[in-house]
Amino acid sequence: MPAPIYEMLIKYRESRPLAFHMPGHILGRGLSEPFKEAGSLDITEIPGADCLHAPLGVIREAQELAANCFGADFSLFLVNGSTAGIHTMIRYAVNPGGKLIIGRDCHISALNALALAHGEPIFVAPKVDREHQIPVGITAEDVEEALKAHPDAQGILVTRPNYYGMAQPLAKLAGLARRYQIPLLVDEAHGAHFKFHHNFPDTAMELGAHLCVQSLHKTLPAFTQTAILHGKKDYVDRRRVELTASMLQTTSPSYLLMASIDQARELMERNGGSLYDGLWENIRSFDAKLVKTTCLERVTTPGKEVEADFSRIVLDFAKTSLSGFQAEELLRGKYGIVAEMADLRHVVLIATPFHIDHDFDRLLTALQEMSRDYGGCQKGREPILWPVDIPERVISLSEALFSEKRQLPVQKSEGAIAADSLIPYPPGIPLVNPGERITADIIQYICLLLSQNCPVHGVDGGKIQIVDTGAMNKI
Ligand SMILES: Cc1ncc(COP(=O)(O)O)c(C=O)c1O
Hints:
Radius of gyration: 23 Å
Distance between the termini: 60 Å
CATH architecture of the domain at 272-374: Alpha-Beta Complex
Structural class: alpha+beta
Shape: globular
CATH class of the domain at 272-374: Alpha Beta
Strand content: 15-25%
Bound molecules: pyridoxal-5'-phosphate
Number of strands: 19
CATH superfamily of the domain at 272-374: Aspartate Aminotransferase, domain 1
Mean pLDDT: 94
């Protein structure tokens, strides 16, 4: 399989050029030893290297190969992660001041993009699997309600899969988007690998999304920051998407990053099926031993509408005396195993075809010891009831984010306007977002979580950031 950008870089290096061009390290000469090898491929837009902003050569070819591989009509390489793609999708879909129907479990970049566009989020709360306290996505019914209330909405943005690897159904949402003639935008940052094995959920492109973004760096063998924005041409204006992405990306995109996207796609297209067959077998064997030899449960969703990514190992520590945070620390401190993230109950690990049998054995041994030392407990089964109501919006996202702020003890914040999102994990859904009113229920819930040593993102030393309305009035 060709990998045009990668091959061009190798060829250039082999030609032993005398470089009098950017970057200033001159093909690695000025870099420290560990960087030299990578630096020898780090070039700029020299003849033959094409240009990301007006691709006609190797970049165009590589993007076309990617589109073909991922089932899109067109694909754009991103060198600032899915963050850049989310900004592009939102800027593309939402006119200044326009509305976007958006799952409340969206990534921070979606809120930032809306704030910059002076857009208005119309939040839809995701459903939560009450047994495991994990969000499983927004329903088409809830989105339809939101659309009826806001028929002027300019798009729908869904995060699928989420951090826990849960992939919600999309077909009905795609139908709704078509009916309302607005684009369905999917943040598929965590699902770039779905295309490469039949046991993964179908991809957003396959399920009718109009634009979707994938972080290659999260799950595929690619450098950090690499991502792709995919589009379907029947519903979106490709030229305007390209223009928007171009406005948001650097004029000096890293060829290492672009070649890494190219090469990851090539490897997966050529060999992804058998690589993921291997992972599937490893995971099945790991699961069977986990069930037999520990009291830990792996969270999956058999038989439910929501599908689970089999490569995301979500471990529930509810039957141990450990919180997810403590388990993560123990795994790291005692066993040298570093997880992707933890919450009050769970530890989330990302498994890839590049983990070998021995890695799973080592993980299993650690979990067996932890189960033996801390198991036999029955805590945490009862769901904690979080306030599901979305609070009143008092000022716009952009006003709140760009306002003067001050800190306030959370207990004293009733009635204040949040300047930050306050997010407990689980379920990773904001209790309050910037510009929304903080209620007594929210304060009570945060205090309950803090009393259980559950950190709440946005709460620092018992204090939160609120909008300084005094300063606002002065302006
Ligand atoms: C759901 C989701 N979307 C988007 C992003 C942003 O992706 P990137 O880091 O590639 O910019 C993240 C990052 O963690 C994420 O979790």
